[in-house]
Amino acid sequence: MFNSDIIIKVTDLHKSFKDNHVLKGVNFNIQKGGIFALLGSNGAGKTTVVRILSTLLKSDGGAVTVCGYDIVKQADKVRGCISLTGQFAAVDDSLTGKENLRLIGQLRRLPDTNRRADELLHTFDLENAAKKQVSTYSGGMKRRLDIAMSLMATAQQRQVLFLDEPTTGLDPQNRIAMWDMVKNLADEGTTVFLTTQYLEEAEYLADKIAILHDGRIIAEGSLEDLRKLFPPAKKEYVEIQPTLEEIFLKIINEKKAV
Amino acid sequence: MTQVISNSWTMTKRCLKTSLRNPDNIAAAIFIPAIVMALFGLLFKNVINVGDYNYIDFIVPGIILQTVAQAVTGVAISVNNDMKKGMNDRFRSMHISKSSVLTGHVLSAIVRNMIATAVVIGVAFILGFRPQAGFTEWLIIAGLLILYMLGVTWIAVICGIIAKSPEAAGTMPFLLFVLPYISSGFVPVETMPNVLRQFAENQPMTPIVDSLRALTLGLPIGDNLTLALFWSVLIIAVTFVIAVGLYKKKT
User: Fold this and answer.
1) CA-to-CA distance for A224 and A246, rounded, in angstroms?
2) What b-and-e string marks burial along A162-195, b requiring 16 or more CB atoms within 10 Å of the CB?
3) CB contact B130 to A (< 8 Å)
4) Best A92, A101, A165 residue to mutate vs chain B (most B CBs within 10 Å)
């Protein structure tokens, strides 16, 4: 069955690191457009999933297609349609902010590298630091540049944007700015694949949420779907909707009890 | 193909910018050989018997090989840094030529090497180096040196790929700095003890040193140049294949 609206298809994905069986048959599909959030505790394997889907790591078994291409057999095609912001800032400290952006633009052979770099510097509030060496940047500035570099691409080249814990280490103000930016990207048609340990981030951003626990996806759906799975626990004078955080912890604990 | 050339050129510019902003490496590649040259030239010139030669003239080829060895430590360190940091993940997740990452390091290293070598030859002049080479000889010297630099740089790239830390990567090429001592670079091989002599006579640096010496001093070159070219091309071919293979395997 072929569904053209599905941009990422993960079937029975397995991965072990020596004795540590991290992914034990992960399955999920992601629709084109919108924001998909992968949640999980530390060490659940979120980053492993991202690294496999972005062709950086080989899986031990299972099938994955991104943009309709097989991530193993057509890795170059996949690389041509994704952009990655990994967990660790992928910026060159010896270059300036603008030089970093131009580097990526030239590697991707964009037609108007200079103008695009200026636009992104403006969007990410880095104009004043454009000509400073990145080694002088704060953590938040590096993170913003990092994401800007992932956007230094044609829409075709970033049909899927992977953001692995994009707001870790950002102050609240920058975090909210980042959220707005991610929403804008999704509105423009980019499919955003987000991992996060901040549940309110997923609650605010994600159209679809999957919870990775003990090597498998144990719950999947929109926030509303997840709420239906676990009806509000407290009914008093007002109905208190459970926060995603409560849902998350409850699911995890129930699984542990089984 | 245009993708490979375009990517490699972009990567080379990146590495050149980086080297300009971290000039310590090129400075070390100039100072250390210059100090060795001054020490040997001034301290040992009356002790070591090299026949009719001026001792500075005699050691310049060996010193040049040491300059190259010192200069490539920077490649090993920067390749290792790239392997460890997030930047490498970004490159790998992009649809670009994989070898261009390494090519950028190598080509920029050749530029650094040529600058360091030119300055060291300048220092040699101050210390009394008086070459007899004409324009053609200098061209051949430059060509041979570039081949040698390419081979040695790819060796340093391998060090950068296999080393566990940038510090380790930076010390691995030290062997290349020591090897010219066990060649015809600083003393005539005939004066060496038997085992060392066997090694010195057959290792690639000896024909390269002998070629450079013959070219700079206007001596008969014999089959040294052929041997030197053979060794240089062989080293490039082998190290290139190993380096790219290791890089692809590791990434």
Assistant:
1) 14
2) bbbbbbeebeeebbebbbebbeebbeeebbbbbb
3) no
4) A92
What's the number of domains chain B is made of? 1
User: Which residue bears the tokens 């101050």?
Assistant: B126
Enumerate residue ranges in chain A where pLDDT < 70: 1-4, 231-239, 255-258
Picking from B86, B87, B94, the nearest residue to A108 by CB comes out as B94
> Mutation test of the interface with chain B: which of A94, A131, A146, A165, choosing the one with the most B Cβ atoms within 10 A?
A94
Quote the tokens at residue B115. 């600058």
Cite the beta strand spans of chain A per DSSP E: 6-17, 20-31, 35-39, 61-66, 69-70, 82-85, 160-164, 191-196, 208-213, 216-221
Please provide the DSSP assignment of B135-204 as one string.
HHHHHHHHHHHHHHHHHHHHHHHHHHHH-SSHHHHHHTTHHHHHGGGGTTTTS-GGGS-HHHHHHHHHST
Give the pLDDT score at A150.
Answer: 92
The answer to whether A103 contacts B92, with C-beta atoms less than 8 Å apart, is: no
Best mutation site among B11, B93, B250 for testing chain A: the one with the most A CBs within 10 Å?
B93
How far B93 CA lies from chain A's nearest CA (Å)? 6
- Residue ranges in chain B modelled with pLDDT below 50: none
Q: In this predicted model, what pLDDT tens digit does every residue of A218-256 receive, in sequence order?
A: 989 888 888 887 766 655 566 677 788 778 877 877 766
Looking at the complex, report in whole angstroms how far the Cα of residue A152 sits from the nearest Cα belonging to chain B.
Answer: 11
3-state class (DSSP) for residue A176: helix
Give me the domain span that covers residue B47. 2-250
Q: Which of A82, A90, A95 minimises the CB distance to B86?
A: A90
- Chain B partners within 8 Å of A51 (Cβ): 89
Q: Residue B51: what pLDDT?
A: 77
